[in-house]
Amino acid sequence: MSNWTKFDKEFDNEALRDEVKEAAENGGSGEYREVPTGDYEVEIEKLECTSSKKGDPMVTVWFNILEGDFEGSKIFMNQLITKGFQIHIVNEFLRSLGTDNNVEFKTFSQYEELINKIFDDLDSDGLEYRLKYGKSKKGYPTFEIKEVYDD
């Protein structure tokens, strides 16, 4: 008999339940319509520090589209932060979110606290955004906040 209680500590069970519900609402296959590049009115559903599959530090953002043909769809931003230019990309993005936080990288633990604070501020202020979702010359996704909307 195996002991799965260890998984209760290793995984976010509440988040998994939410993901199961979302998968069921989207046909259960995990297949979603791809959101084309363009401008979208969005809210930020998730903003957190995490790790890539290789274990490198990464910042992830889930944008929830609020209106139009893709209402309810998600756009995902995943940015590794192992190099200075990558941290600069995240810094500029965080500054564009309309909070009063001083965005500066000092250490990874400090950065995680900052990102958590920014997400708490976004959540409590009910901010929404006009997001320009595009592609770079090399085909990488780009994310630019064009406007901040207060609730």
Q: Mind describing the biggest β-sheet?
A: 5 strands, antiparallel
Strand order of the largest sheet: 3-2-1-4-5
Stretches with pLDDT under 50, minimum 5 residues: none
Oligomeric assembly: single chain
Helical stretch count? 4
Helix content: 25-40%
Q: How much of the polypeptide forms β-strand, as a percent range? A: 25-35%
**Rg estimate, integer Å:** 17 Å
Termini, distance in Å? 52 Å
Kindly state the mean pLDDT as a whole number? 89
Report the count of strand segments: 5
Helix-strand string: HHEEEHHEE
Structural class: alpha+beta
- Described by the principal axes of the CA atoms, the overall outline is globular
How many structurally independent domains?
Answer: 1
List the SSEs and their pairings.
Elements: H1 5-10, H2 13-25, E1 38-51, E2 57-65, E3 74-80, H3 84-95, H4 108-125, E4 128-135, E5 141-149
Antiparallel strand pairs: 1-2, 1-4, 2-3, 4-5
